[in-house]
Write a structure and sequence with these properties.
By secondary structure, this protein is α+β, with helices and mostly antiparallel strands. The chain has helices at about 20-30, 75-90, 100-110, 120-125, 135-155; strands spanning about 1-5, 10-15, 45-50, 55, 70.
Length: about 160
């Protein structure tokens, strides 16, 4: 079947199988930042944004994004670089395998929650697993990233 969708602000028509998962469709289309991890929807590595909301692409049929907007981390180079810098400064960025899905979740969280508490951040990020770093350092990095984003928006 033909899937018509918008990926990173570009309209696409992709040939897919009826039972194909979105992670496979995106990787075949060259979006290699979308990682395959657990294949059970438990690790967050495959996270993409669909209509602005985090979605686990390993458990979402590609056909479900027909005529919808899909975003991968390639659509957010500035934000990803800035978040990576803050995570690294706090010792939270190690191998980077989880980084694309994690960053997209943080971006979606910032759009949805206004000045979230630490508990709200941790709750929102529940399901984004990282085996390299501790979650306390990630939380500090996210806080620093959020502060920089807010400061830059206030100075516009």
């Amino acid at each position: 079947m033909i899937l018509t969708t918008t990926i990173n602000n570009r309209k696409k028509e992709l040939l897919i199988d009826a039972d194909e998962y979105l992670v496979d469709t995106l990787r075949k289309a060259g979006y290699l930042s979308v990682k395959r991890g657990c294949d059970t929807g438990a690790c967050g590595l495959c996270t993409v944004l669909v209509e602005g909301k985090p979605v686990l692409s390993c458990s979402t049929l590609a056909a479900r994004v027909m005529n919808k907007k899909v975003e991968t981390i390639e659509n957010y180079p500035k934000e990803a670089e800035m978040l990576a810098k803050h995570l690294a400064e706090e010792g939270a960025e190690q191998c980077g395998f989880c980084a694309p899905g994690f960053a997209l979740t943080v971006i979606a969280m910032m759009r949805e929650l206004n000045n979230p508490t630490d508990e709200e951040i941790l709750h929102y990020l529940n399901g984004n697993l990282c085996r390299c770093s501790g979650y306390a350092s990630q939380l500090r990095g996210i806080r620093n990233y959020m502060k920089e984003v807010m400061d830059s928006e206030n100075n516009k």
